[in-house]
């Protein structure tokens, strides 16, 4: 049984599916963020992932050998902090304009929420719309 709203409902579902696809793609790009920062005088290089987790530390030169342990530790901490800040900025760029306002970007970024939590496969809808869709076969 068809209703006068079938075309509108189909257009809404198509729009929702596109938005969900875009969000899944954005989430994939966000997970791929990796930032590498080299300290002054190339004493060390650090790499962090999208959540700021340290994934690599390298000492490209022997410059670290002349540093006191506390100096090296401070340089490591500063370099990691810089890399984490840049990673967060990169993730924010990926998210910009993709998700609706009110999104818990921090929760998404920290892994506490996933795209499935934000955009379920079946969108929430009033009962009369569900009835129309089930009667029209759009979600059958």
Question: How would you describe this structure in keywords?
Answer:
YbaB-like_sf; Ybab, Chain: A; mainly alpha; YbaB/EbfC; YbaB/EbfC family nucleoid-associated protein; 140 residues
How would you describe this protein?
There is one protein chain. With 140 residues, this protein is mainly alpha-helical. The protein has one domain (6-136): Nucleoid-associated protein YbaB-like domain (Ybab, Chain: A, 2-Layer Sandwich), CATH 3.30.1310. Helix content is 52%, strand content 9%. It has helices spanning 6-31, 69-95, 105-110, 115-118, 127-136, and strands spanning 35-38, 45-48, 54-58. The protein has a three-stranded antiparallel beta sheet with strand order 1-2-3, with helices on one face. Helix 1 packs antiparallel against helix 2 (69-95). The two termini are 13 Å apart.
Question: What is the gist of this entry?
Answer:
This protein is mainly alpha-helical. It contains 5 helices and 3 strands; from the N terminus they run αβββαααα. The protein has a single domain, classed as Nucleoid-associated protein YbaB-like domain (Ybab, Chain: A, 2-Layer Sandwich), CATH 3.30.1310.
Q: Tell me the span between the first and last alpha carbons.
A: 13 Å
Shape: rod-shaped
- Beta fraction of the residues? 5-15%
What is the CATH topology? Ybab, Chain: A
SSE run: HEEEHHHH
Using the CA coordinates, give the radius of gyration.
23 Å
Query: What structural class is derived from the secondary structure elements?
Result: mainly alpha
* Low-pLDDT sequence parts: none
* CATH class designation: Alpha Beta
| Average of pLDDT | 84
**Count of alpha/pi helices:** 5
- CATH homology superfamily name: Nucleoid-associated protein YbaB-like domain
What's the domain count?
A: 1
Helix content: 40-55%
Strands ordered across the widest β-sheet:
1-2-3
Number of beta strands = 3
Architecture, CATH level 2?
2-Layer Sandwich
The main sheet comes to: 3 strands, antiparallel
